[in-house]
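[Help] Beginner question about ligand-bound structures

Sorry if this is basic. My supervisor gave me a protein sequence and a SMILES string for zinc ion and asked me to "get the holo structure". I don't really know what that means in practice or what format the answer should be in. Inputs are pasted below exactly as I got them.
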Amino acid sequence: MSFENLNTERLVESTVAPRDVVIAGDHSTEPDREARCAICGTPQSDAIGLPVRYANPVCKECDALAVNEEGSEPWEGYPPSERPETDDSVIHLEPDHGENPVYIAGVKCWRRYRFGGWITRRDAYDCSSLEEFREYHRLDGHPIHAFNVAQPGGVELTRESCGSLQDRYQCLQSIYEDAQSVADNSPSESAVMDLWDQLERLDSSITADLLDPDQFTPREVAVMLADELQSLLQTRLTASDSGAWITRAKLCNRYFAE
Ligand SMILES: [Zn+2]
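Answer (accepted):
No worries, everyone starts somewhere. Holo just means with the ligand present. The predicted complex, written as C-alpha cells, is below.
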C-alpha cells in the first residue's frame, strides 16, 4: 500500500494531510486509528450506523440532515417526476436509486442506494458523478478515509452558530429533567403549567402537538411532557420539521464534543 499512489492534486482543501489519510482495509499501517464520521468526527465506537467499510463514511445521525441542491429532502426510489400511478393491487418494487449528490452542513456527499436503503459518503475530490466518486476514493482497491479526525474541516458549523442552538437544546434537556422529577412526586398545577409555559416559549410546535392539558391531572401532564421530551431528545434518525433544530443542535453537540 503506497500513499504515493494517492491522487493529491485534486483533493479538496478540507481533507487531512495525505499522510494522514486512512486506508480502510490496511490495518497494518494504522492499527490504533479508529474510523470516524467524515462530518461530525464521532469515532466508530460512539457513532450510530457508521459504514466504516466505505470511503469517508457518514454516520446515520448526520445523514438525517442531508438535503439536495435545492435544500429539500433528497428523493429515493423513483424520481418525483417518474413515480408510477398508485394501484393498490400491484406492489411496486422501487428501483435501487435516489438523488445524488446530497449536502450535509454544506458538505458534498454521495449516496450508494441499494436494497431499499443507502449509505452516505463524503466527497474528497469534488466529483461530478457517482462513477467518478467510485474511481477516485480508492487506493489499491481499498476505500480511503480522508477526513478521519475530530472536527473535520469544511463543515459549515461555527462555535457561534452552534452556541444558541446548543443553549436551546440544554433548556429542552432541563425542562425534561424537571418534568421527570415533578412527575415522580405529586406536582401542583402551577409547577406543571410553569414547565408547560417554558416549553411553549422554547418551541411552541412541541406543545401544539400535545393534548389539551386542561383535560388531565397535573401529574398526567408532567408525565406527558416527560414522555414527549424524552422521545425528542433521544436519537432521531429523521429530522421532522418541528424537531429539525434539535437534530442540528445534536450535530453541534457531536462535532464540538471534547
Ligand atoms: Zn456524523
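A couple of things worth pointing out: Residues 183 and 223 are 6 Å apart (CA to CA). The chain has two domains: 1-156, 159-255. Feel free to follow up in the thread.
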